[in-house]
Amino acid sequence: MIEPGFYLIDSRGYYLAKEFVSSITSKHDFTMTNTLNHAKCYQDAEEAQALADELGLEMMRVSEVYY
């Protein structure tokens, strides 16, 4: 089951993973996943947008539950 909320996605259609590495040396050292099941979900749109901007990703809203 996919949690409704905000997800971060890159230009290839990959989602920011639930577990991602944030490195001091590079803001872009993070893990992406190709399934929403393993993607990090945010409930706060402002928090999600701020992180998207920092990582160079796009924010996507999921308002329905997908199976």
How are the SSEs ordered, and which strands pair?
Elements: E1 5-9, E2 15-16, E3 32-33, H1 45-55, E4 58-62
Antiparallel strand pairs: 1-4, 2-3
Sheet with most strands: strand arrangement: 1-4
The fraction of residues in strands falls at 15-25%
Stretches with pLDDT under 50, minimum 5 residues? none
Number of helices: 1
Radius of gyration: 11 Å
Mean pLDDT: 88
Largest sheet: 2 strands, antiparallel
What oligomeric state best describes the polypeptide chains here? single chain
How many structural domains can be distinguished in the coordinates? 1
Terminal CA distance: 5 Å
**Structural class computed from helices and strand pairing:** alpha+beta
Number of distinct beta strands: 4
Order of helices and strands: EEEHE
Shape: globular
> Which percent bin holds the helix content?
10-25%
Task: Explain how this protein is built.
The chain contains one helix and four strands, in the order βββαβ. With 67 residues, it is an alpha+beta fold. The protein has one domain. The chain has a two-stranded antiparallel ribbon with strand order 1-4. A two-stranded antiparallel sheet has the order 2-3. It starts with a strand and ends in a 5-residue tail after the last strand. The model has no long low-confidence stretch (mean pLDDT 88).
Summarize the structure.
The chain is an alpha+beta fold and 67 residues long.
Task: List the main descriptive attributes of the protein structure presented here.
alpha+beta, single chain, 67 residues, 4 strands
